[in-house]
Amino acid sequence: MAQAAKKTNWFAIWVTAGVVIALVLVTVLVVTLNNAAAPKPLPTEVNTPSASNIDAETGAIHVGDGADNLATYVDFMCPICGQFEETYGSEIEGMVDDGSITLDIHPISILDDASQGTQYSTRAANAAYCVAVADADKSLPFLQQMFANQPAEQSKGLTNKEILGIASDVGVSGIDSCVNDGTYAGYVTEMTAKTPIQPGSSGIGTPTIAVNGEVIANSQLPAAGQLNTLFQ
User: Fold this and answer.
1) Which residues have CB under 8 Å from 33's CB, separation 6+?
2) How many helices (H) and strands (E) does the chain have?
């Protein structure tokens, strides 16, 4: 007797097909989520910020109009920069307010590698220029609040949304595209390369401090409350 034709097990076929489709959908979902989570690459073209309070040649954001000049080169992820702000921030603000000094803020980026690929240092410095262009008077409050909310080194840093939230808290809005698009990211890179080297150092470091154009070693900084002695 001829062997009876085997029946096709359609149930098993449909179950197998369903499993395959589900695996494909899961793979697509994972890839999509990973791509969405990946930070947007920052542009490399150099867009120079244009505002009366910014020295386009040096990258300095001018705050105040005192005869003496204090220049600070800071990376918003640098923990020592955070300590510098905590130690001297209110004193610097006081000297700006009483007309003793002009503060030149140089937001630079040397710690992008310490933010898990998000380029936080560059994004934060870019945002500082976005704020300075939008409202010069908010430059120092923005810096202060960025350090008050400073993320830990080796973390992902603040998101652009969080940075924009800080800007909004100090009274600056309408800079979403500037921050999200990294408008001045290439400029930050260019200015970072121009950062002067402290005496006794072999490379760029933060914070770097210059008093009336003369770069000093951080070991020369006085005790808290005595920063004015640098100008005597």
Assistant:
1) none
2) 7, 5
